[in-house]
Amino acid sequence: MIAALDPKFTWYVARAAGLTTWLLCAMAIVWGLVLSTKLIRRRGLPAWLLDLHTFLGTLSVFFCAIHLGALALDGYTEWGWSELFVPMASTWKPGATAWGIVAFYLLVAVQVTSMLRRRIPKRIWHTIHLTSFALFAAGTVHGVTAGTDWTNRAVTYGSVGVGAMVIGLAVIRFTAKRRHPRARRVPGAVSPGGPLERRTPRRTSDSSIYSIGASAD
After folding, report:
1. What H or E segment, with its residue span, contains residue 134?
2. CB of 20 within 8 A of CB of 147?
3. Average pLDDT of the chain?
4. What single DSSP character describes residue 212?
């Protein structure tokens, strides 16, 4: 019935969902970097703000599913399941499509390992979580080379602005980490002010462990 009203309806849905997925991934990375770079103080923030990073990532998976489902149902273009999930299987812009498939698998890997955060080694989680930057890059290349909306000035300027935010915050995050490496405790060492006191671990919100670029130590 919907196709009878507008044969391109599912095509429009796929395009809108694709752009929304890219934006949600970018915002999840931006918010994770804002928290991990300590540009804002996490102490005193409402719990929902600390959980926003995780929520944005989960929501991006939902819209990515809509993007893929709309393409599979679309009658305006021809998409089979192999074209949607196997790189270079599509006859329509195979390279551009392959970038999107790579981005999809990276998105799934990041979100699944985030859900299993407490059941897998922290270094493995951290390494996979850092592929969020590769996910963002692959998704951007896919959108620019395969999308039909990137010629729109609003989309172009908006994507450039968001990309600049991601790159700028990433530079701040990793340069700060190199300038201030975590000091290692020497067994039997004495603090400058007197005997070394036993410190109780600081409680942090569960959501804060999902911040992009968090320390792996």
Report:
1. helix 132-146
2. no
3. 79
4. T
**Tokens linked to 27:** 């915002």
Give me the count of residues in the chain.
217
CA–CA separation, 96 and 104 (whole Å)? 13
Which residues lie across from 194 on neighbouring strands? 191
* pLDDT tens, residue by residue, 91-125: 888 999 999 999 999 999 999 998 898 899 999 99
Whether the CB-CB separation of 24 and 60 falls below 8 Å is answered with yes
Distance between CA atoms of 214 and 36, rounded to whole angstroms?
A: 6
Distance CA 77, CA 63 (A): 20
Q: How confident is the model at residue 203 (pLDDT cuts 50, 70, 90)?
A: very low
- Residue among 122, 210, 213 at smallest CA distance from 166: 213
